Amino acid sequence: MVVVMDVVMIMIMAVIVVMNMAMAMVVIMTAIVTMVTVVIMIMIMIMVMVVILIAAMIVVVVKPQNPVVARLISELWLEHFS
Q1: Which sequence ranges are marked TM in the entry (predicted)?
Q2: How far is CA 18 from each of CA 2, 5, 12, 24, 25, rounded to the nearest angstrom?
Q3: What's the rounded Cα separation, in Å, for the pair 27 and 33?
Q4: Is the predicted pLDDT of residue 65 greater than 70, yes or no?
Q5: Which residues 6+ apart lie within 8 Å of 60 measured at CB?
Q6: Where are the domains of the chain?
């Protein structure tokens, strides 16, 4: 009877350890997924900002042929940087 109780106790302990491991793994995986998602979002934001910056530089450096657009850009530029 004592041996059976010991075996049952060992099995219960093993189940508790496995459940704790599973919970820890779930928490760790959730944290990793959250971190990866945040990093990907930050990278996408940086890429969008770089693309916008490059487009603005191209528009400013390569003056457009349309005089109306050129005047609009120069007015905006003077408003911002004067």
Answers
A1: 7-32, 38-62
A2: 24, 20, 10, 10, 10
A3: 10
A4: no
A5: 73, 77
A6: 2-80
